[in-house]
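Hi D.,

Good news: the full-assembly prediction came through. Inputs first.
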Amino acid sequence: NAGVTQTPKFQVLKTGQSMTLQCAQDMNHEYMSWYRQDPGMGLRLIHYSVGAGITDQGEVPNGYNVSRSTTEDFPLRLLSAAPSQTSVYFCASSPLDGDSEPQHFGDGTRLSIL
Amino acid sequence: AQKITQTQPGMFVQEKEAVTLDCTYDTSDPSYGLFWYKQPSSGEMIFLIYQGSYDQQNATEGRYSLNFQKARKSANLVISASQLGDSAMYFCAMSQLPYLAGGTSYGKLTFGQGTILTVHP
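Then the structure:
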């Protein structure tokens, strides 16, 4: 049982480059989300999705795009990387029908923008 | 808007002793969920315990218990019999429950800033 899989685990980009962080889950969860973790600030929600074809913005969406074409995958795109996007990114998933079901997190992607 | 406050940047405890990590929250929603996650130095987020706002009993999961005081809006995590492997960052988080959200706020978690727990031998 793989759970939530994030790739890559580490990435270094130059300012202005674009890239996609991948997230896949094999638990058939409807809800998927992306968070970023910065030192001293906890995790903040970037974007989330309640099912294929449905996405919405979280607390810090600027500079990021998402799409949800399948239940399993929820990629996060950085269109033009900026040093302020240096962070650790977590993908999470959970079912929609259980209010006590915790979100399952991937192991994170550590991203550095030079 | 929801807000979670963890006022202890760092805590120290002796092995085998109990420790309480503080968490206070602010929300106008009558129904919500409270979670605690552990993040060891390896970086993964590990779910520990959940408390629903309408649960009458405090949640317990093994050595973890949640001291839920709804009137004071606090949800403190109690770890009994601390172990060296408990050394980690601990996050308190709150979610808005689905049936209040009109289908657009499912599972959105608001996190506190975290508390670093160090267990001494």
